[in-house]
Amino acid sequence: MNIGDVAERSGLPAKTIRYYEDIGLIRPHRSANGYRCFAENDLHKLAFLARARALGFSIEDCRTLLGLYEDDTRASADVKALAQEHLTKIEAKIADLEAMRDTLTELVHCCAGDNRPDCPILKDLAGDIECL
Amino acid sequence: MNIGDVAERSGLPAKTIRYYEDIGLIRPHRSANGYRCFAENDLHKLAFLARARALGFSIEDCRTLLGLYEDDTRASADVKALAQEHLTKIEAKIADLEAMRDTLTELVHCCAGDNRPDCPILKDLAGDIECL
DNA sequence: ATGCTCCTTCCAGCAACCGGAAGGTCAACA
DNA sequence: TGTTGACCTTCCGGTTGCTGGAAGGAGCAT
Lengths: 132, 132
What we know:
The structure is a homodimer. By secondary structure, chain A is mostly helical. The first copy, chain A, is built from 6 helices and 2 strands. In chain A, helix 3 packs across helix 4. Chain A binds a DNA duplex through helix 2.
């Protein structure tokens, strides 16, 4: 398969696939004309990567996960630990974003949103606490 | 004030303050020795920026917000619209992260986490759906 | 031969900084 | 007076995970 085919079948852009080769996540063969030549196994790995990325794993985590995936003697504990750690980070991010959301929601709620200049959002940013 | 003083008082690293000058968010004067020389107004702006950044506004949003802040003839509707748009993006991000969290939570829950190789997390990533 | 699409490599850039090198300045202290 | 140490300066490169574009080769249809 050429890169266009695996791009379509994996859902990853060709650019991304080349990048993954660049950083050593995959190692497709080359045809005589210099084109990358992908086997089913490469496609499978790319789909794995696409899914792991969609779950928010970093590239380095993905590298580790691929390594574990290909290691028949892995301990599931290692995979679980990685996933758990990632989950913890995601939960922290959610908490951060929720704090922003709550503050912003209140500020937006307090702002008249008319054509007058008076604005509690700017006041809050400027350090004048107002509105409740 | 020198940069170290405003860094301490605004809570922003000196590097960040220099960067903000670079991209034109602030324009501190210079002393005879070439050191940046910050007025109270600069400090005030930096605190404004720090707070806006903490609420997740992008640098470009911050630039706009600062502009609105300094414009006495602004309409609060413009500020509110910007904040509302940002809020919507944050809510979308939260939703994305929550979807990841939910999937990961389930996968982590399904994984034995022992020293055997069998792992539903890897199976899921590989496209074999298992575990409910 | 021409045109079109696909492929290749390489280079630049995005956000929002951070780290470090190389060097100038300043205040204090022996 | 010399020197130490803390501060300041600029500049360059790296971070993450790609994305866009330029310049050029390959393959196929007409």
